[in-house]
User: Fold this.
Amino acid sequence: MPYFIDNKNLFNLEPSNGDGLRDCQLGAIWALKSYKTNGTNEVASLISTPTGSGKTAIMMAACFELGLRKILIVVPSKILRRQITNQFRELRILKNKNCLDENSPAVSVYEVTSRKNSREEWETILDSHDIFVSHPNSISPYYQGLEPIPVDLIDAVFMDEAHHEPAPTWQSLNSFYRTQLKVFFTATPFRRDRKRMSAKLIYHYSLEQALEKEILRPIEFHGESIGNHPPDSNEALLETAIAVFEQERNTNPTCSILIRTDRIEDAVNLVTLYNDNGFNVDVIHSKRSSSVNESLIEKVNNGELDGLVCVGIASEGLDIPNLKVAVLHATPRSIPYTIQFLGRISRTPLDQEGPAKLIANTDAVRGEVRRLYKSDSSRRLLIPQIVDEQMQLARHYRSSQAKEEDFQMPELNVYFSALVYSTPANFNFQDQIASSSSNFEIIHYEQENDESPLIIVTAHNKPIDWASREIYIEDLLDVHILYHASEHNLLFELTTSELALDSLKDSIINMELQSITHGRLFKTLSQFSQSDYLMVGMKNSALAGSSHPSYKTLIGSSVQAAIRSSEGRVFGTGHAVLRLDEENTWGIATRKGRVWAMKRGTASEFRDWCDHLCTLIVDGPVIANLPGLSFLATSETATRIEELPAAIIPDAIFFKAYNVTISSPNHNPIRNFTPILNGVRLQENNSRLLGTLQLDDLSFDFTFDLNSDRLWSIDGANDVTVFAERRDDTIVDKSIEDVFNEYPPALALTDGSIIVGRNKIIPNTDIEDLPNEIWKEKDWNGCNIRSEAYAENPNGDIPVINQTIELLRPSLVQGGDLIFLDDGAHEIADLIYFDSANSTIHFIHCKYSSGNNAGCRKSDCDELFAQAMRSIHWISSPILLDRINNRLENAQNSQIVYGSDELLVTISENYRVNNWKYNLILVQPGFRISQVSNKNRANNNVYELAIPMYERIVGSNGNIEIWGT
Assistant:
């Protein structure tokens, strides 16, 4: 099979007989063929032609001309999905244009109407189909619990109506298929919502051209000024619609009408209103089945209906050639959507004459389209004018002549900001400088001598970040300065683009360099008598939670006076800006070891400033905090790990990014899964921690070594990659080992301190006693406290989890409460109890006793407390119910032990994080409460370990109970 290769001999792009394709369609095909020769699949190509100019024919012809085998077509609505499916099956458009032999066979097209769960399902489907048409909700990697078409099984992705691409579901598709040929099709290659399409515009055919070629017809506007009261507006628009439509029917008997609103309820009411007044219309929307919507469209085409009422984007891509009148009961607020909608009525059927008619209430117009609807200008002139204004900045411009032979490098005037690294005594720059990425080109580099800064200038095509559309600028220049102060074994790095520098850094530096420690960094500000802080950023040093932000910033004059001493229990220094004197304001940031000054200068002046920093960093003792901020959590260089961590918490990107995909060869993508790290043993005088990393059902051994240049290493995980994104931004796209080294997990130690990277952060540990109410004495008679796992039909004394359920049973409300058993690998908790009456979700962790009698044994709390600290990110988690449903479907031991499947569905559908309270219950019948709750009891390790755990849980907006005997 592949259809488009096997039947290429039946296709002719430019037939000698017949009409053939339009000029704009041919131009788009030629642009695509050109881009295929010199473009890259990493960047999608964008085709912009007006609505009604024939984008579907371009797609069809592209399949033949580009020699494609398997093609995924993504569309924004179920209506358009069915329409594209039917059109591709017969390729009637190409046959009617004499581009394809009339006797050519049908194409095997698969309409994706449901989500798939495995690669095997897709392999079976792809064996017998060439085209796959889908809505993003059925195929986007953004959603958990579905399997996209595997990357290696298709060779092209077409996105129709691609102005939706900045939406997360579309962005995830674009990112997932980043190595496949991707072609975006749209009538509006720009957006006004400040979101950019991740594509390169390779062809644009303007509205003005389409009007001149009579591909489109002008639009005559009938504006009504009738206020904002919906009933009045509806009646007035209906009255105008009756008059306009009757007049049109006299001239064009087959014309039809399209009526737009925003809500399904309003659409149903409008159908009644119009039909009661002589029209014969029906409604299409996303809640109706594809077959019903398709049949209604066919009725309009056949003249059985006068027209349709549509809701929102249901009108996009509608193939109803005889549409001529449009009524807007809800006016689109953006230029792109307005143009999409107007394109439905502006096509020029052979059997119609005269302009299209648009009816709207000008008093109801909002946003950027006000100019369009309030203007007296002709729509024929105004719409193309507005679009062309948008497009003027969407063309390619040169920002410099940097690649020309006579280009002169200007004198640098850089902002003083540098990351500072420690270097070994034998450090030197490498001789050969090269970029590993085709996106960045080195156009200039210089270094006067070994003691001078190395200056590199790179060029690349880059979109302007502040623009509301994708604008490529040729030869955008970035400068990178690397200065090695060999006498002090320090390296200073200045760059205007980290991405560009990363592409060439490995060719300059052949070893892993570490940022200077916090203690050395703080010294850059410590030797000045003036302490007027203009800004202080405080990083959550007790690990982030919901009630404590991960970061807090104060701005003003002498802001250190506004910081409470109690902040030191939670926060350490993140960054600070200090006015040193009238001429000097400096800042530091602990994230990567950065120092900056509010000044600019030449490369030579930058070197002098770095030399000054060297003196400050090297002279005198290392300090634990900035001057005037000693009450914040202190920092010292981590040289030992005194004992196994109570928990190892991955960086927040794993549970704060809206989409995280972990990929491993020969394994299904692991989506939105928080890595589980467990410390196993310490080596090398407690400077090295060995442990295990769990990624779903994958397991790896890791090493965290304070004496190694590279702190984190993961055995056998070289090909395991992490892709994380937040809104439009990609946060990371690299190997998991690189992620751990750049975004290091936090080792939560039993004394309340935390090791992140090479820094040990020690919060202010002055704390009141733990509240007495967290300790709960329970009756464990009839329970085998040495056995934990749930048993369906236990004999004799029952296990701990069974007894815990029995202890909950008296408070359970039938029909309202639910208990989910999740005891097993990668569990959320042993039990999750939904207490509907109190709007509380209880995460219950159970552990068996290490002894026959209750006492105060540290061994009984180690794993229990670690599980509690690891599970805290499920508090207020928006994906909690998704994970529970996934566990119920896929985990062997997960089941509902109280309640029903129907109740879980109800809870899932109505789940809102802010409507619930969250409580962690730690069950250990081996705890004798009178002993473990006594702070003054000698060697009460359980109480001491409970303190950092309690602080973290409360700081995450949760409550805690500890059940014992």
Summary: Residues 72 and 132 are 5 Å apart (CA to CA). The chain has 25 helices and 45 strands.
